[in-house]
Design brief:
9 helices, alpha/beta
Length: 203
């Protein structure tokens, strides 16, 4: 029993490594060091008492195809879980939603094969692309979250999109206050992700 307790303690002490695979919203575009999504979420998870190491794999301008192309080299062997934030640039460029769906499906297939817990964050298309496009695009995320049985945060920019006071001058990228709103809302989901990873590591 003492050996089991030691093993459990070792597992608890070992930080869970989470890679955030995403776009400029993950990368922290336009923000000072420490103000972006990853450092703010890292701080929130630290304050929750969890031993976590978040890695920023956000690339500004990246599409779902770009995320898929760099998936393998974004994930080292010691990764325990992944946050997937992709698709915003697909919508901004008016890509066919089916392309985005196929790319995200391929990413989730690869992560499932590696046995990695996933937090998938949803995205909405700009309203100027029309209602039909918007509905088709928005449906990608809940459909895939259900199909792959992964944690799902419905809209990454919830409470921030179209709020001038929470965005940079471009009206697209959150400012530090906007990031804080996102992080406060998404932290419980991230905590669940870490707990899933911890459970997988201990089994």
């Amino acid at each position: 029993m003492a050996e089991e307790a030691k093993a459990d303690a070792k597992l608890t002490a070992q930080p869970v490594k989470v890679v955030a695979l995403g776009t400029s919203l993950t990368a922290g575009y336009g923000l000072e060091q420490g103000q972006g999504f990853v450092p703010q979420l890292q701080k929130a998870l630290d304050e929750s008492g969890l031993s976590v190491m978040l890695e920023n794999a956000g690339v500004s301008g990246d599409t779902s195809a770009g995320g898929l192309a760099r998936l393998d080299w974004s994930l080292n062997d010691d990764v325990d879980a992944v946050i997937v934030e992709l698709g915003s640039n697909d919508a901004l460029r008016g890509f066919e939603p089916q392309q985005t769906r196929e790319n995200l499906t391929a990413i989730l297939d690869a992560l499932k094969e590696r046995g990695l817990p996933v937090l998938l964050t949803g995205m909405l298309a700009p309203p100027n692309l029309g209602e039909e496009y918007g509905e088709e695009f928005a449906s990608i995320y809940p459909d895939l979250a259900s199909e792959y049985d992964v944690l799902f945060y419905p809209f990454f920019l919830e409470g921030v999109a179209a709020e001038a006071a929470l965005n940079q001058a471009d009206g697209i990228h959150p400012n530090p206050d906007g990031v804080a709103v996102i992080v406060e809302a998404i932290t419980p989901y991230a905590v669940q992700l870490v707990e899933h990873a911890r459970k997988d590591n201990s089994s």
